[in-house]
Amino acid sequence: MLIGAHVRDDDPLAAAAERGAEVVQFFLADPQGWKKPQPHPKAAELAASDVVTVVHSPYVVNVASPNNRIRIPSRKLVTQHAEGAKEVGAIGLVVHGGHVTKDEDPAVGVDNWRKFVERQHAEGGFAVPVFIENTAGGDNAMARKFDALARLWDAVGEFGVGFCLDTCHAFAAGEELVGVVERAKAITGRIDLVHLNNSRDEFDSARDRHANVADGTIEPEVLAAVVAAAQAPVVVETPAEGQAADIAYLRAKA
User: Fold this and answer.
1) Within the chain, how many helices (H) and strands (E) appear?
2) pLDDT in tens, 196-218
3) What residues does each domain of the chain span?
4) Average pLDDT over every residue of 53-63
5) Under a CB-based contact definition with an 8 Å cutoff, are residues 194 and 235 in contact?
6) I want to staple 197 with a disulfide (CB 3.0 to 4.6 A). Which of 8, 24, 210, 239 is the partner?
7) What molecular functions are annotated in GO for this chain (predicted)?
8) Strand, coil or helix: what is 42?
9) pLDDT digit string (tens) for 76-100?
């Protein structure tokens, strides 16, 4: 069981050593920006390392959006970050499912995802696998509630995309974590990565606020059970000062 953390992007391997992490996730560029990622200064070291690497795309990405000024740059950013992820030896690129606005039909967002991945598949695929991540809030989100996730997967699953299960997001979205792995796999057929986060808020809050494993509103044993069931690499995206303890706890329970 490979367990690690989302870390600072300047020296991910040093951050991994500090935490006892076997996996590192990081950004290649400003997570709130639209700029193309620049070559990572430690790309060769990361690619050669035994530490498993994952890249997270910027939060601004919204492939589902009907707005051309958002959707088209989002597509470009995903392909650019996938190329950057390949350079650092990443196993995949995490991309949030995105959303449409309250007056727009979610089916349009699903179709926008399908068009994107279908076209990329026809052109040889992404530079690394894209892992679509479930999200915490928004009534018109593509991957918040699992019924919406199922509609999305019916459209994109045949094109080889992966799935990243975030425990805080699922809990905040009102999805029970007991049996969540089995329910997710019934929809997607796979879990490629787990974002193992506790929640600062209550069940079905729609709020995306992460807590360390021992500090939130989710019982730590429930989180450990998700790890055991998923049998996939695990990344904690929790407050940095508690990440080493989070990793140690999950490894002891694995």
Assistant:
1) 9, 10
2) 999 999 999 999 999 999 999 99
3) 42-230
4) 98
5) yes
6) 210
7) DNA binding; DNA-(apurinic or apyrimidinic site) endonuclease activity; phosphoric diester hydrolase activity; zinc ion binding
8) coil
9) 999 999 999 999 999 999 999 999 9
pLDDT over threshold 90, residue 69 = yes
Stretch 157-178: mean pLDDT? 97
For the whole model, what pTM was predicted?
Answer: 0.97
SS3 of residue 50 by DSSP: coil
For residue 38, how many other CB atoms are within 10 A of its CB? 9
Question: What is the C-alpha separation between 4 and 19, in angstroms, rounded?
Answer: 8
Contact 227, 250 (CB under 8 A): yes
Q: How would residue 168 be classed by pLDDT, with cut points 50, 70 and 90?
A: very high
Tokens representing 48 are: 């050669």
Distance in Å from the first CA to the final CA of the chain: 7
What CA–CA distance (Å, rounded) separates 152 from 238? 28
CA angle 2, 163, 125 (to 5 degrees): 105
Length of the chain: 254
CA distance 130 to 137: 21
Token couple for 85: 């992820």
CB 82 within 8 A of CB 128: yes
H/E element, 16: helix 12-19
Asked if 188 and 163 touch (Cβ cutoff 8 Å), the reply is: yes
